[in-house]
């Protein structure tokens, strides 16, 4: 079954979100803006749906390692 264009775009955006959160020190609000999310809150909601955790929690612990 083929993936719809909107689903593919959303998946790619989520991948860029994870990379940005992991590999930059930009504020989460800035990342949300760079990736064209209307608000940081919406960015956080979508990120959590994709990654299972908030962007800040992911940034603090990207591999799920308990410190």
Task: Write a concise synopsis of the structure shown.
The chain is an all-alpha fold and 67 residues long.
Protein described:
This protein has helices at 5-23, 28-34, 40-51, 55-60. With 67 residues, the chain is mostly helical. The protein has a domain at 29-67. Helix 1 packs across helix 3 and helix 2 (28-34) crosses helix 3 (40-51). It is globular. The mean pLDDT is 85.
List keywords for this structure.
67 residues; 4 helices
Helix content: 55-70%
**How far is the N terminus from the C terminus?**
41 Å
Give the strand content: under 5%
Number of helices: 4
Task: Give the secondary structure arrangement, pairings included.
Elements: H1 5-23, H2 28-34, H3 40-51, H4 55-60
């Amino acid at each position: 079954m083929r993936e719809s264009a909107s689903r593919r775009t959303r998946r790619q955006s989520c991948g860029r979100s994870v990379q940005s959160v992991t590999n930059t020190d930009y504020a989460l609000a800035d990342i949300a803006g760079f990736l064209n999310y209307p608000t940081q809150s919406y960015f956080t909601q979508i990120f959590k749906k994709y990654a299972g955790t908030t962007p800040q929690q992911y940034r603090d612990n990207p591999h799920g390692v308990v410190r």
